[in-house]
Amino acid sequence: MSWAQQQIWLTDPSQYGKPLEASNGVQVSGDPYLFNNWNTGLATLRTGEHYKIKKIRYDVLKQQVEYDNNGRVFSLPSELFSSFVLINGRDSIVFRNGLIGVKDIPLKSYAQVFYEGKNKWLCKHYANLVDDPESAYGSEKKKMIQKDKSYIVLRPDETAIRLRLTKKFFLKTFEQISDIDLNKFLTENGLKFEEEKDLKAIFRWLDNKITITK
Hints:
Blueprint: E1 7-9, E2 18-19, E3 28-29, E4 39-45, E5 50-59, E6 64-69, E7 72-76, E8 81-88, E9 91-96, E10 111-116, E11 120-131, E12 143-154, E13 160-163, H1 167-173, E14 174-175, H2 179-189, H3 199-207, E15 211-212
Parallel strand pairs: 1-5, 3-12
Antiparallel strand pairs: 2-7, 4-5, 4-8, 5-6, 6-7, 8-9, 9-10, 10-11, 11-12, 12-13, 14-15
């Protein structure tokens, strides 16, 4: 994404967004948000305008972007906004919708973009409500939030492959990667597939190397 264009603060809730609806009273444990705290960030309209937002967060359960305006929380409609960015410390975490070719990601649903080169390297965050196993027997069932995520590479021809974050998977699935080269790259740079903070660098290296065969 390019944010060199003029950015203005999104401060008028009547311009974009709608107030959140009240809870239906169901007792739910767990945090539905990607991060516990609000972040500063950016949101981009489909028409290209960029808005800076002082307090923004992503509700994984509802697949909904929210922002705070003077203590009132509003949601940003995905039919109007094509992408948003959460600024988390020194990291900028990019999300985009309208991704064609990934059947697990509806067009209005957001996916995190780890790296975009020849291919798009994505992470889809999920959350579901499940019965809380700690609910007392015979009492009203309580719900808990269960989170999960999947990693996907989206090719230029709009075919997608779900990824398993292991060396064995990448060596089997992609051409032009040798065990020696991959081990050397990971070792010299101190990177691991198990560390999410390392994935952007790993995906960038893979993007320059791979040809998908199956």
